[in-house]
Amino acid sequence: MNIILLSGGSGKRLWPLSNDIRSKQFIQIFKDQNGSYESMVQRVYRQIREVLPDARVTVATSKTQVPTIHSQLGEDVAVCAEPCRKDTFAALALAAAYLHDVKEIGQEEAVLVCPVDPYVEPDYFRMFTEMEELAAKKAAALVLMGISPSYPSEKYGYILPADAQPVSRVIQFQEKPDAKTAEALMQKGALWNGGVFAFRLEYMLEMARRHLGSRDYEELYDSYEKLDAISFDRAVTEKETDIRVLRFGGSWKDLGTWNTLTEAMEENSVGDVAMNESCRNVHVVNELDVPLLCMGLHDVVVSASPEGILVSDKAQSSYIQPFVDRMDQRIMFAEKSWGSFRVIDVEEESMTIKVTLNPGCSMNYHSHERRDEVWTIISGRGRTIVDGMEQPVQAGDVVTMQAGCRHTILADTELKLMEVQLGREISVHDKQKFELE
Amino acid sequence: MNIILLSGGSGKRLWPLSNDIRSKQFIQIFKDQNGSYESMVQRVYRQIREVLPDARVTVATSKTQVPTIHSQLGEDVAVCAEPCRKDTFAALALAAAYLHDVKEIGQEEAVLVCPVDPYVEPDYFRMFTEMEELAAKKAAALVLMGISPSYPSEKYGYILPADAQPVSRVIQFQEKPDAKTAEALMQKGALWNGGVFAFRLEYMLEMARRHLGSRDYEELYDSYEKLDAISFDRAVTEKETDIRVLRFGGSWKDLGTWNTLTEAMEENSVGDVAMNESCRNVHVVNELDVPLLCMGLHDVVVSASPEGILVSDKAQSSYIQPFVDRMDQRIMFAEKSWGSFRVIDVEEESMTIKVTLNPGCSMNYHSHERRDEVWTIISGRGRTIVDGMEQPVQAGDVVTMQAGCRHTILADTELKLMEVQLGREISVHDKQKFELE
After folding, report:
1. Size of interface A-B (CB pairs under 8 A)
2. Cα–Cα distances in Å, from A110 out to A410, B15, B91, B237?
3. How would residue B183 be classed by pLDDT, with cut points 50, 70 and 90?
4. In Å, what is the CA distance from A332 to each residue of A342, A409, B188, B190?
5. Distances (CA, A) of B55 to A36, A293, B78, B118
6. What is the pLDDT of residues A191-225, one digit of tens each?
7. Contacts of B187 (CB under 8 A, 6+ apart)
8. Are A380 and B424 a contacting pair, CB within 8 Å?
9. Would the pLDDT of A416 be above 90?
10. CA atoms within a 13 Å half-sphere pointing along the CA-CB vector of B302
C-alpha cells in the first residue's frame, strides 16, 4: 500500500506550542505505551507501522518541516518536500509525481492520503485496506472516508451519500458550507470528510496535468512557486462525480484547537505542574523550566512555552489566532535537523541562545557581517572550525568569533552551548553560508 | 516625629513574585503619579515623606533585606537590621535600642511604628500626628490605630474600645481570635488592629528590659539569635491595660494575598499581556519577556516570573502557601545591593546566570572550589580583578576563571554579563570571600 502522509502547516491555533516553524503535529504531548511522549506525526506514523507494516509511507510536507520530520520519524522515512506552501492540491500533485517519477510506482497502483492530525485508534487504519482495494479495482475515481458529524461545523467538507450502507455512492460533496447549509446537509445524512481518501495514481497525475498543466516531478517542482494555492477538496473533490464513501464509526478527534487537543491528552498536565483539588477540567502543558501552579480553575487550558503563555477558557481557546497574529513574531524556540535552539535572553545589543546539537550533527559553515559571537560549551564534546582551523572542544571551552569570521561546530557527542551574539543589528538574515574547504 | 517602618518577611503568599529573598513589599506593581511602577515599601515611604516631611524614618528589617531596602529607598535611609528573623517584639526592641543608643533619641520622645504593607491614602498618615501627641503626653502607654472590621477574620488582632468616641480607652485586646470569637468581638464594637501604634521610647526600652533582659543595642544585637520569636502584640499589647485607640475611617487595604493585592492595582495588567474582551475581573502580572494571552477568564489572577507561574481563581489565591512550600526552593531571581541576578538555564553540570551590576558597584572578591566560570560581557564597561590582576572589560569581552581563582568585577557604567558556571556540584554555598589585596 502507498500512503501519502500529508503534513501541513498549523498556523497559530495551538500557540504558544506551535509557531511558524514548529507546527502542532510536532508537539510531543501524547503518552505512548512506554510512558514517553510522542507527537501527532509520531503517533500516526507508529500506528500505520503497527497496523499496516507493509505500507510504503511518503511524507508530503514543506521544505521547512523536513528537518523536524527526520528528527521525529528517523532519517529513513521518504519525504516529498514542497519548495514553498501551496495548499493541498499542489502538494498532492507533487507527491503523486514524486511517487511516479522518483519512486517509480506504477500508474495503476492505488494511493491513500492520510492527514497527520487526527487522533484515532487502530480501527481507523484498518479501513485503509478496503479503501485501497476499492480504488485499485476502479469502484470509483475517488474513495473517501466519512465521519459521523457531531455538530454543524463550518470547517469540514460534507459528503452526502446515496444511501445508509457502509459503502455508498456520493451524490454531493460540499467543502466548508455555512452553519445553516451544514445543518441541512446533516439532516439529509451527510458525513464529514475526514481527509482520508484513496485513488489510482493515474487519477492524481491526470488531475495535475489537467488543472496545473504539469508533466513530471522535476517540472512541477521547478514551477511550483507559480502554482495557485488551492485545496484538493475545492479543486477536485467538489467537482468529481464518481466518488464512493466508506463510513468510519470509530473514535475520531481532530486536534486542530486547544479544546480538541486537550480531549486527547491522557493526563491533565505535561511538565512541572501542580493543581489544587478544586480544579475541574483543567489541562496544562508547561514546557518551561519553572513550576506552574493552578488553583480553583474550571474548564481552562494553560500552556507555557519559550514563545509565550496562554491561559484560556476552553471554549474560547478556538479564537486565539487574531490575538497571536498581533504579537511579536520572533521565533524563540525551534527544532532543526541538527538539534534545537532556544532564545533565552534578548538585550538591545546582544542575544543569548542555548544551542543543542545532536551527536554527529553540525551547523552550517557560516559567518555574520554585523555581529560577534561567543560560544561557551556547557556539555559534550565536538570540534569547531573557525576560518578553516579545526579544534577539539569540550564542556568549559570558550570560542570567540569576530564578525566576518567563518565558523561551525561539529558534535561528537550530544553537545550543548551558550551562544552570546553581540552587535547592533542582530538579525536571522545576517548570515552567509559557505562550503567547508 | 520618629517612625519605625517595620519591613517583615512575606513568606510565599504572593508567589511567584515573592520568595525567601524578595518579599511582597518590594514588588513594583503600583503606578505612581509619573506613570512608573513603585513597590509597597516605596509607596508608603513616599507617602510618609509627602504627608510628614519632618519625620525621621528608620526601617526595621532583617539583614537579608538591607540591599533591597537601599536599592529601593536610596542609600540615605536609616536601617536597623536584625541579624536574623525573630518576629516583631525582638525587631522593635532592637529598633528602640538603635534609636536610643545609635541615633541618640531621648527616652521621652514618642515613636510611631508603621507596617510597610497597607495600601492606604494620605489621610492614614495624617493620623500619625495625633497618635504621636497622645503618646508624648502620656495619655496612654500604647496608642493604637483601629480599623473598622469588614468580616470576622482570624488573622488580625481585635481592639475593644470602651465607647464609640474617635479616641477611646481600650478595655480588651485579643490577638488573632477564632472566627466565632471574632464575630462576638465585632458585635461588641471591636476594631481591627492595623499594626500602627505609638509609645514613648522609654516604654519600649522598659518592655525589652523586662521581657528580654536587654540593656543596650550592642548587647541585644549580639544575643539576638537566642531571643524568643514572639510578636509584639502577643508579648506586650495583649497584656497591657493602659491603651488608647484612635479610629481610622478611611480606605485601608491589607495587601497580604493576591486577592487583596489585585484590588489595589490600578490597571488590570503589568507587563506584556493581552486579554480578549470576554475576560472579567482578571489581573495579570507578567515579569517574563514573552507575551501572555488570556481568553475568556473570570475572577482569575495570573502571575508569571522567573520563579514560576500562578494561575488562580481569586478567592482561592489565599491558599497557595502549602503548594508553594512543596516546590523546589531554588531562587531564580534576586535583587542585591550591587544589582540583580537571574538564573536563565540549569543543566546537570552547568548553570547560566544573567548578572546586572549597577554603575559603581561590584561583587564580593571571591572564589569557588568546585566550579569554573565564564563571563561574557553583554553591555557596559568595567574592570575585572582575577587573582589580583585588574583589567578593563567592555561588551564582547570574555573572562574565564578556573575553580580556585579569586575574582570580582567592578562596574563603571551599568554592566550586564552572562555567567556560565561549569562543574559537578554547583551550589551557592561553594563560595569563599576575600578582601581585595
Report:
1. 186
2. 43, 60, 84, 90
3. very high
4. 6, 21, 61, 56
5. 63, 43, 12, 19
6. 999 899 999 999 999 999 999 987 799 999 999 99
7. none
8. no
9. yes
10. 33
Beta-carbon contacts of B186 under 8 Å, excluding residues fewer than 6 positions away, are B149, B152, B158
Bridge partners of A374, per DSSP, are A400, A420
Listed in sequence order, the DSSP H helices in B153-256 are 179-187, 201-212, 217-222, 232
Flag whether pLDDT at B72 surpasses 80.
Answer: yes
Among A279, A344, A267, A338, residue whose Cα is nearest residue A305: A344
- Give the residue from chain B lying closest to A355, CA to CA: B345
Separation between Cα atoms, residue A199 and residue A108, nearest integer Å: 9
Reading the block at residue B65, the C-alpha cell is 533585606
Query: Do the Cβ atoms of B276 and A349 come within 8 Å?
Result: no
Q: Which of B311, B201, B143, B232 is nearest to A313 (CA)?
A: B311
Mutation site, A287, A376, A405, interface B, largest B CB count within 10 A: A376
Q: Distance (Å) from the C-alpha of residue B297 to the closest C-alpha of chain A?
A: 6
CA–CA separation, B183 vs A268, rounded Å? 41
Query: Using CA atoms, how far apart are residues A23 and A292, in angstroms rounded to an integer?
Result: 24
Residues in chain B with CB shorter than 8 Å from the CB of A418 are 345, 352, 418, 420
- Which of A295, A319, A344 has the CB atom closest to B312's CB atom? A295
Mutate to test the interface with B, among A15, A259, A295 (most CBs of B within 10 A): A295
Instruction: Report helix, strand or coil for A119.
Output: strand
- The alpha carbon of residue A268 is apart from the nearest alpha carbon of chain B, in Å, by 15
Neighbours of B24 (CB within 10 A): 26
| Distances from the Cα of A33 to the Cα of A46, A47, B91, angstroms | 11, 12, 58
- Predicted confidence band at B11 (pLDDT cuts at 50, 70, 90)? low
pTM here?
Answer: 0.76
Query: Hey, of B279, B292, B354, B374, which one would you mutate to test binding to chain A, going by the most A CBs within 10 A of its CB?
Result: B374
Closest-CA residue to A348 (of B410, B270, B380, B306): B380
User: For residue A281, which residues of chain B lie inside 8 Å, CB to CB?
Assistant: none
* Chain A residue whose CA is closest to B278: A316
- Decide the pairing of beta strands A78-82 and A56-62: parallel
What amino acid occupies position A31? K
